[in-house]
Design goal:
single chain; mainly alpha; Growth Hormone, Chain: A; 18 helices
């Protein structure tokens, strides 16, 4: 068994090293990595690989911190301008549609240039985060409320487009940055630190918004401060990603320059189409209700923005425990098993909202939800890396993500319409039923064929 320190160059430690910020930074990131990667390795990691893993780790921490200051609050920002449920649904739907429209252009750009890192830096790491700064400027323009809501929708749409334009390049690059033998524990421990960042800063974001809005009774100042902080911290994440030295290999060249038929690439990857189909249904069901949980919490259950931040932190706190447990489960039982055991319980979570009468009950829901989603997201991302073919991965990822965002475009529109014309309870129930259907399709289209293949191989053996 190899220890990470066996293939990291040894450094002479000075008695003054604790006074050096770079040394603190090294131990802050190196120690959890060291603990998480102690396992059988087919070959030692190079100095470049360990450096890339460290900067990718830091990129995730700052990205999660940035998201804490805006992700849950853009719909509430529109609500502060008087947006209706349908308008909130449109804001989310436009963002999802823009995200879907960006994926194949992003994949084609990757195939044309082969520069995965530069695509990620200027699109998702650059222009997408600039949109957060522009969101903070919206109140300064003194726009009429309806025009301001349109501006929020447009800026959020551009943010989503640029963020997802980089997704095929990012996914292809990550597959080379993180060796397959350590993906389970590396991503679980990376997600653990990202969850810790979200836990610490989501409540702070809610406090910043509430306090800022109360200062001089300005209903938008808190949002401006939060979005500006999200931009600044996000650019630190971009800086960390820029320090990664892009892996170049014969497989990378094959992936980047491949322009053949996507159909031919998919033939070599059984289970991929089932993954796409079940993902369509699952994400449509998610987005029917996702934009409206916090709206319902504020408008129907009497919570404020500060409570929204606290409940987001509760989810992140529960996710920390999930990362500790599910990373080991992933390595031992596989991504398919982990997605099944977390996906079906997640289908029950929106149904529980039908019975809530007080904000504290939502906190309990978020506690269980954060724990389960930690495992589901870990399994889903690793499945995406597994079922997409090495040749044509950019297009395969783009096809999957396009389907996800296309279904997520319709979900908020349906949810917004039903919230206004029927009730919030109707969209919560519909979301639960749709999630369960997505998991049944996953069971039939992915788990069952793979189980049969294993049995056939065992019988032949």
């Amino acid at each position: 068994m190899l220890h990470l320190l066996d293939y990291i160059p040894q450094r002479r430690i000075s008695v003054f090293d604790h006074l050096r910020p770079q040394r603190w930074n090294w131990y802050l990131v190196h120690r959890p990595m060291e603990r998480s990667l102690v396992q059988q390795a087919p070959q030692p990691l190079t100095i470049r690989q360990t450096s890339n893993l460290r900067y990718f780790w830091l990129d995730g921490i700052f990205a999660a911190t940035s998201e804490s200051f805006y992700l849950a609050f853009i719909p509430l920002f529109a609500l502060a301008y008087g947006a209706t449920n349908q308008q909130v649904g449109w804001i989310t739907a436009i963002g999802n549609l823009a995200g879907a429209a960006a994926l194949f252009p992003g994949a084609r750009m990757l195939e044309k240039t082969g520069n995965r890192k530069s695509i990620v830096l200027w699109s998702g790491g650059g222009l997408a985060r600039v949109m957060l700064l522009l969101l903070s400027f919206v109140p300064l323009l003194a726009l009429p409320p309806q025009i301001a809501i349109l501006a929020i929708a447009a800026l959020n749409g551009v943010r989503a487009f640029m963020g997802n334009f980089s997704n095929p390049a990012w996914t292809a690059m990550v597959a080379d940055i993180v060796p397959e033998f350590m993906r389970g524990r590396y991503f679980s421990t990376r997600n653990l630190t990202m969850g810790a960042a979200t836990l610490m800063f989501s409540a702070l974001a809610g406090w910043v918004i509430r306090t800022g809005n109360q200062w001089q009774t300005d209903p938008y100042l808190g949002y401006q401060l939060s979005f500006a902080l999200a931009f600044a911290i996000g650019m630190v994440s971009t800086l960390q990603f820029s320090r990664i030295r892009e892996p170049h290999s014969s497989r990378h060249v094959e992936q980047a320059r491949q322009t053949g038929s996507l159909r031919d690439a998919l033939k070599s990857s059984p289970g991929y189409l089932g993954f796409v189909v079940s993902g369509l249904v699952w994400n449509f069901a998610l987005q029917i209700s996702a934009p409206f949980f916090n709206i319902y919490l504020v408008t129907q259950l009497g919570a404020n923005v500060g409570i929204v931040g606290i409940f987001t932190s509760i989810s992140s706190f529960a996710a920390l425990g999930g990362q500790l447990i599910f990373g080991k489960v992933l390595d031992r039982r596989g991504a398919v098993f982990l997605q099944l055991v977390t996906g079906f319980p997640i289908a029950l979570l929106p149904v529980m909202w039908v019975f809530y009468t007080a904000p504290w009950q939502v906190g309990v829901n978020n506690l269980f939800g954060g724990f389960l989603w930690a495992g589901f997201n870990l399994a889903n991302f690793n499945l995406l890396l597994q079922v997409t073919p090495h040749v044509g991965r950019a297009r395969a990822v783009a096809l999957y993500q396009t389907g996800v965002f296309a279904s997520a475009f319709l979900g908020p529109l349906v949810g917004g319409y039903l919230a206004d014309t029927v009730s919030f309870q109707a969209i919560f129930l519909l979301s639960g039923v749709g999630r369960a259907l997505g998991m049944v399709l996953f069971l039939g289209l992915i788990w069952l064929p793979m189980h049969r293949l294993k049995q056939r191989a065992a019988n032949q053996g």
